[in-house]
Amino acid sequence: MRARWMRRPGMRRPVAVALAAGLTAVLAGCGITIPSDVEGTLDDVTGGVLQVGITPNPPHVDTSGEQPAGTEVALVGSFAGSIGASVEWTEGSEQSLVQLLEIGELDLVIGGLTEQTPWSDRVALTRSYAEAEQQDGSTSGLVMLAPMGENAFLSALERHLDAETEGEP
Predict the structure, then answer these.
(1) 52 in Cβ contact with 88 (< 8 Å)
(2) Residue 95: is it exposed, middle or buried by C-beta count within 10 angstroms (0-12/13-18/19+)?
(3) Average pLDDT in the 15-38 region?
(4) Among 83, 93, 101, 112, which one is least packed by beta carbons within 10 Å?
């Protein structure tokens, strides 16, 4: 036998909305925010230092000069500026940078990485924010790598990338 309220389709939506509002109020009262960071990355870097791993891959990241340059370097610089952070760069291979990201020595890794990165089971990927042409002529979405579980940091970065690359992919 079905509950009486389930027989009236028009009653489901108001009940669901009331339950969602109640759950939100309870979570807010407990000081829980969504999304949140397991290690507090967004709080740590805001007004502090953003540790960024870079691997050369022009035009996205060019390390041939005294200072890193390129499209992704500029995006990270503008993100850091938006949260009042300075950036410290660490150059290395993708493998060494992913290891540093996993142990919390880095907050972000860039280098023209695409959605097909083999590191996706070890780190979090941003949403694709631009398309890059591959050697075979196909295109693939560009992503940045962040620590697993740092969802507030990842969300803030993605909102910034969306705003900076509006109209791309």
Answers:
(1) yes
(2) exposed
(3) 66
(4) 93
> Are 129 and 167 contacting, i.e. CB atoms less than 8 angstroms apart?
no
Cα 150 → chain centroid = 8
Q: Show the beta-strand stretches assigned E in the chain.
A: 49-54, 86-91, 108-110, 124-125, 130-133, 139-142, 145-146
Q: Which residue has the higher pLDDT, 22 or 45?
A: 45
Q: Which residue stretches of 39-70 are H helix? A: 41-45
- pLDDT over threshold 80, residue 30: no
Average pLDDT for residues 120-144, to the nearest whole number?
A: 93
For range 99-117, the mean pLDDT: 97
pTM of the model: 0.80
Helical H segments across 32-70, by residue range: 41-45
Residue 109: which H helix or E strand, with range? strand 108-110
For residue 87, the SS3 value is: strand
> What is the rounded CA–CA span in Å between residue 64 and residue 68?
7
DSSP string for residues in 5-34: GGG-HHHHHHHHHHHHHHHHHHHHHTT--S
Q: Collapsing DSSP states into helix, strand and coil, what is residue 17?
A: helix
